[in-house]
C-alpha cells in the first residue's frame, strides 16, 4: 500500500477524471480552480454543482484552516448562525448569487493553469448533521479520520460512481476513495433523472457503484439499469434489508456486494460482504481499528475515525464551544440491535448468531439515508394556529426505508377537513425540506402522554 | 373497487397532493418516468397497504422491482391472490 498522502492535491495522479453532468476535469493536469489565496481561512463551501465542490476541496485541503461543507438543502436562514458558530471568513461558491453580505467571496471555476498554493496545515473538515431544532449541527473531522477506512490499493481500471451527494458524509467517503486511489468518479446531479444518470454511469464505464438501499431500489425500477454492469455494488446510509440485497444479487450476479455501516458522528464502522442483512455477532468485540459493543440494546462504536468534536456547540448547548463527543471515545450510534439466529434469506444456510437492526432510539427517522428528528417536524406543525399537539414518527417503507407520519390533535375538532390538513402540510413545505414533510397526516382525538407528562413515543 | 382502479386512483391522488404532473398512466408507463418520485411511490405503497391489506414489496418471495405501471398492478394482483 502506498504511503498516505498529506493532502488531497498530493494524492492526485494517474489518468483519473471527475465526471460531472456538464463538465469533466482531468485531475492529473489540474491547475487552480480558485484565484485568491485562502491560506488559514475558515471557508463556507456552498455550490450548486457537486463538481465545483470537489474542485474547491482539492484546492483548499492543506491550505484553509477549516472547510465547512454545506449540504445542498441548507436553509439560507441558517447561514448567519453557521457563519458565526464556525467563524467563517470566506464564502466559496460557483455562483456569485450565493455570496453573503459582509463576508469575503471567492468563486470556484474550472481549473486554469497555475501553481498550487503550498500546503501549510492540517485542514479541519466540517460536515452537517441533523439538529433537533432545525439548526444544523456541525461535526469536525480530519482527512485521516474521513479516509481511515479506505484501502489505497485500487486498480487502474476502477471507475467509481455514486448516487450520493459528495457534500454529505456518505458521498464524501466515495470522493475521497476515488481521489486517494487515483481512480475516476462519476458525480450525480440533483436535477438529473435516474435514467439519464444511469446512462451516464454506463457511458463512463462505472465499475464500483454506491448508494443507499433507497437509491438502489429506484435504480432497479428503471429500465435504464441495463446500461450498467458494476463489478462492485455497495449500500450504506440506511439499513439494508434482505429484499434489496437479494434483488441486487439477482440483477448483478457477478458483482461483489457489500453493505456498510456508518454515521456522520461515529465515522465508518464496518462492511458486511456475505450478502445477508445485519452483521455477524463475531464483529462485536473483535480487535481492529473499529471497536464495537452493544450496551442497553444499542450499538456503540469507538474508532480513531470518530468525529473529533462538534463545532460551535450543538444548537441545544447554548453556544458552548467545541464539546468533545464522548470522553472515553465510545459513541452511542442510537441504532438498536437484536441478537438472533441467522435466518437471513433464502440463500442462508448458516446458523451463526447475528445482530439485526431494530430501529432507532430517540425516534430518528431515516428516509432514503436522510435523517429526521420527529421533534423538528412536530415543532413546525405545532406552530400552526388551530393545532393543539402532534406526534411524528416513521413508518417502514419498502421504497425509501421509512416515511414520515404525523398525527395531529386539533384545538377545535370541527376543523377536521381536507382544507385544514392541506394548510398544515403547506406550512411544513415552507419550513422544511421535502423529505421531512409528513407523507401522511391524520387527525386524532388525543395523543397519549407518559406519566411524566411527555408525549408518548411508543404508540 | 378493483385492485387496478384502486392503484390508479392512488397514483392520481398522490400526484395531486405532491404537486406532480403525471405524464400518463398506461400499462406501459415506466414508473420512474411517470412524473412521480421515490417519496410518492413510498406514500402510494403505504396507502395501498392500508386499503388492500397487502404490501407485495415486503411479502413477495420474488426478488424484483416493478418497472412499468402494468408490472406494478400485476404485482398487487398476484400478492392479493397469494
Mind explaining what this structure looks like?
The complex is a heterodimer of chains A (459) and B (82). Chain A has 459 residues and is an alpha/beta fold. Chain A folds into two domains: 8-341, ANL, N-terminal domain (Rossmann fold, 3-Layer(aba) Sandwich); 365-443, ANL, C-terminal domain (GMP Synthetase, Chain A, domain 3), CATH 3.30.300. Chain A is built from ten helices and 25 strands. Chain A has an eight-stranded mixed sheet, sandwiched between helices. In chain A, strands 6-5-3-4-7-8-18 form a seven-stranded mixed sheet. The longest helix of chain A has 14 residues, at 418-431. In chain B, helix 1 crosses helix 2 (38-52). Chain B has one domain (3-81): Orthogonal Bundle (Non-ribosomal Peptide Synthetase Peptidyl Carrier Protein, Chain A). Chain B has 82 residues and is mainly alpha-helical. Chain B is globular, with a radius of gyration of 12 Å. At the A-B interface, helix 7, helix 8 and strand 23 of A face helix 2 of B.
Question: Descriptors for this entry?
Answer:
heterodimer; A: 459 residues; alpha/beta; Rossmann fold; GMP Synthetase, Chain A, domain 3; 2 domains; eight-stranded mixed β-sheet; seven-stranded mixed β-sheet; 20% helix; globular; B: 82 residues; mainly alpha; Non-ribosomal Peptide Synthetase Peptidyl Carrier Protein, Chain A
Averaged pLDDT of chain B: 89
In which order are the strands of the major sheet of chain A placed?
A: 2-1-10-9-11-12-13-14
Helix content of chain B: 55-70%
- Biggest protein-protein contact in the assembly: A-B, 30 and 23 residues
Q: Which CATH class of chain B applies here?
A: Mainly Alpha
Strand content of chain B: under 5%
Task: State the secondary-structure class of chain A.
Answer: alpha/beta
Number of domains of chain B: 1
Q: Low-confidence segments of chain B, ≥5 residues, pLDDT <50? A: none
Main sheet properties of chain B: none
- Continuous helix count of chain B: 4
For the termini of chain A, the CA-CA separation is: 52 Å
Q: In the CATH scheme, what's the topology name of chain B?
A: Non-ribosomal Peptide Synthetase Peptidyl Carrier Protein, Chain A
Amino acid at each position: 500500500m502506498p504511503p498516505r498522502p498529506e493532502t488531497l492535491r498530493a494524492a492526485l495522479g494517474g489518468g483519473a477524471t471527475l465526471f460531472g453532468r456538464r463538465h469533466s476535469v482531468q485531475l492529473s493536469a489540474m491547475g487552480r480552480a480558485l484565484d485568491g489565496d485562502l491560506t488559514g481561512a475558515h471557508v463556507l463551501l456552498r455550490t450548486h454543482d457537486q463538481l465545483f465542490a470537489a474542485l474547491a476541496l482539492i484546492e483548499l485541503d492543506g491550505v484553509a484552516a477549516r472547510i465547512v461543507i454545506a449540504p445542498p438543502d441548507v436553509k439560507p436562514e441558517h447561514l448567519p448562525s453557521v457563519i458565526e458558530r464556525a467563524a467563517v471568513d470566506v464564502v466559496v461558491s460557483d455562483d456569485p448569487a450565493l455570496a453573503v453580505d459582509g463576508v469575503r467571496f471567492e468563486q470556484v471555476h474550472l481549473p486554469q493553469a497555475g501553481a498550487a498554493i503550498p500546503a501549510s496545515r492540517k485542514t479541519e473538515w466540517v460536515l452537517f448533521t441533523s439538529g433537533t431544532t432545525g439548526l444544523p449541527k456541525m461535526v469536525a473531522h480530519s482527512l485521516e479520520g474521513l479516509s481511515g477506512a479506505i484501502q489505497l490499493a485500487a486498480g487502474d481500471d476502477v471507475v467509481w460512481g455514486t448516487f450520493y451527494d459528495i457534500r454529505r458524509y456518505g458521498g464524501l467517503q466515495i470522493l475521497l476513495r476515488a481521489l486517494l486511489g487515483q481512480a475516476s468518479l462519476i458525480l450525480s446531479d440533483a436535477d438529473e433523472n435516474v435514467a439519464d444518470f444511469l446512462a451516464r454511469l454506463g457511458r463512463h464505464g462505472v465499475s464500483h457503484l454506491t448508494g443507499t438501499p433507497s437509491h438502489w431500489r429506484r435504480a432497479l425500477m428503471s429500465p435504464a439499469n441495463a446500461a450498467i454492469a458494476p463489478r462492485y455494488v455497495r449500500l450504506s446510509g440506511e439499513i439494508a434489508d434482505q429484499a434489496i440485497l437479494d434483488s441486487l444479487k439477482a440483477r448483478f450476479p457477478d458483482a461483489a456486494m457489500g453493505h456498510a455501516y456508518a454515521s456522520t458522528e461515529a465515522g465508518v464502522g464496518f462492511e458486511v460482504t456475505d450478502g445477508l442483512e445485519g452483521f455477524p455477532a463475531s464483529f462485536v468485540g473483535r480487535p481492529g481499528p473499529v471497536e464495537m459493543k452493544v450496551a442497553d440494546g444499542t450499538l456503540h462504536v469507538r474508532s480513531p475515525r470518530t468525529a473529533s468534536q462538534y463545532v460551535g456547540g450543538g444548537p441545544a448547548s447554548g453556544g458552548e464551544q467545541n464539546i468533545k463527543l464522548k470522553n472515553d471515545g465510545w459513541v452511542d450510534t442510537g441504532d438498536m440491535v437484536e441478537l438472533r439466529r441467522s435466518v437471513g434469506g433464502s440463500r442462508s444456510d448458516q446458523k451463526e448468531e447475528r445482530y439485526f437492526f431494530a430501529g432507532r432510539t430517540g425516534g430518528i427517522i431515516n428516509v432514503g439515508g436522510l435523517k429526521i428528528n420527529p421533534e423538528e417536524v412536530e415543532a413546525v406543525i405545532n406552530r400552526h394556529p388551530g393545532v393543539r399537539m402532534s406526534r411524528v414518527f416513521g413508518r417502514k417503507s419498502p421504497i425509501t426505508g421509512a416515511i414520515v407520519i404525523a398525527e395531529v390533535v386539533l384545538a377545535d375538532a370541527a376543523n377536521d377537513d381536507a382544507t385544514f390538513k392541506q394548510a398544515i402540510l403547506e406550512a411544513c413545505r415552507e419550513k422544511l425540506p421535502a423529505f421531512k414533510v409528513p407523507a401522511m397526516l391524520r387527525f386524532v382525538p388525543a395523543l397519549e402522554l407518559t406519566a411524566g407528562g411527555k408525549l408518548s413515543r411508543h404508540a | 373497487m378493483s385492485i387496478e382502479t384502486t392503484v390508479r386512483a392512488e397514483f392520481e391522488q398522490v400526484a395531486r397532493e405532491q404537486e406532480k404532473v403525471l405524464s400518463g398512466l398506461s400499462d406501459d408507463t415506466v414508473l420512474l418516468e411517470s412524473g412521480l418520485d421515490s417519496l410518492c411511490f413510498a406514500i402510494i405503497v403505504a396507502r395501498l397497504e392500508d386499503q388492500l391489506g397487502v404490501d407485495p414489496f415486503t411479502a413477495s418471495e420474488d426478488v424484483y422491482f416493478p418497472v412499468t405501471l402494468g408490472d406494478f398492478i400485476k404485482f398487487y394482483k398476484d400478492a392479493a391472490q397469494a
